[in-house]
TrEMBL record:
UniProt keyword list: Oxidoreductase
Residue runs in coiled coils: none
UniProt keyword annotation of Lipid biosynthesis present: no
Name of the molecule in the record: peptide-methionine (S)-S-oxide reductase
Pfam family, one: PMSR
InterPro entries: Met_Sox_Rdtase_MsrA_dom, Met_Sox_Rdtase_MsrA_sf
Domain Peptide methionine sulphoxide reductase MsrA: 11-147
Regions that span the bilayer: none
Known catalytic reactions: [thioredoxin]-disulfide + L-methionine + H2O = L-methionine (S)-S-oxide + [thioredoxin]-dithiol; L-methionyl-[protein] + [thioredoxin]-disulfide + H2O = L-methionyl-(S)-S-oxide-[protein] + [thioredoxin]-dithiol
EC number(s) stated in the UniProt entry for this protein: 1.8.4.11
Species this chain originates from: Paenibacillus albicereus
Keyword hit for Oxidoreductase: yes
Length: 214
């Protein structure tokens, strides 16, 4: 995961098995990087086999000028049922919103207040400030994308290292495509808006996306 760059926001979400939420958030324009990991507990050095009191979590870095926290919160709300998720695997699948800045907490509280006004019970979602986040094993990063060898190889070919490829914005989108949360022509349109990249680089990325055999 690259260091926090100027203007990048961070939020984290626990909502069951982390493979799918990584693809869900990664498909959104404005999301810059995603990583799966373990958070929400106190155990040191958790692993997939020995997670202790942590929960499967996806860390999301995003550009708030392109995608709001409210939009990410909407995806969280609409893509899991906190009660069932918790019941299925206990703390490993605990539903948690991990906020990192007051604006995020305000958005969460506004949602909770809306529910109360509608007479709904409190959701089975924990709300907490993001504490230590432990990245998951490599096999759990961009899990769906790695099921498509040609896509994965072509992504690797675009970056100087495995780590840079895996933590790239393009890896997020291709992982979203692999899981069916995004579509290819929308990605090709979006690539034209990646103005932080040189035009030549954008053409190279687009050519690689077009050439993938899924
Ligand atoms: N598909 C697995 C969960 C894997 S996830 C990383 C299952 O349903 O048991 O927790």
């Amino acid at each position: 995961m690259p260091d926090q760059e100027a203007g990048w926001r961070t939020a984290a979400f626990s909502m069951g098995c982390f493979w799918s939420p990584e693809a869900l958030f990664g498909a959104r324009e404005g999301v810059l990087a995603t990583q799966t990991g373990y958070a929400g507990g106190a155990a040191e050095a958790p692993t997939y086999r020995e997670m202790g009191d942590h929960s499967e979590t996806v860390l999301v870095r995003y550009d708030a000028a392109v995608v709001s926290y409210g939009e990410l919160l909407r995806l969280f709300r609409e893509h899991h049922d906190p009660a069932n998720t918790n019941g299925y695997k206990g703390r490993q699948y605990q539903s948690i919103l991990h906020w990192t800045e007051p604006e995020q907490l305000e958005a969460i509280e506004a949602w909770l207040e809306e529910r109360r006004l509608a007479g709904l019970p409190e959701p089975d979602t924990e709300i907490r400030e993001l504490g230590p986040f432990f990245p998951a094993e490599e096999r759990h990063q961009k899990y769906y994308l790695k099921r498509y060898p040609d896509a994965w190889e072509k992504l690797l070919g675009l970056f100087p290292s495995h780590a840079e490829a895996e933590s790239s914005r393009l890896a997020c989108r291709l992982n979203g495509l692999a899981k069916g949360f995004a579509n290819r022509s929308a990605l090709l349109d979006e690539l034209e808006r990646w103005t932080g990249e040189a035009p030549e680089r954008r053409r190279e990325l687009a050519a690689a996306v077009r050439s993938i055999r899924w």
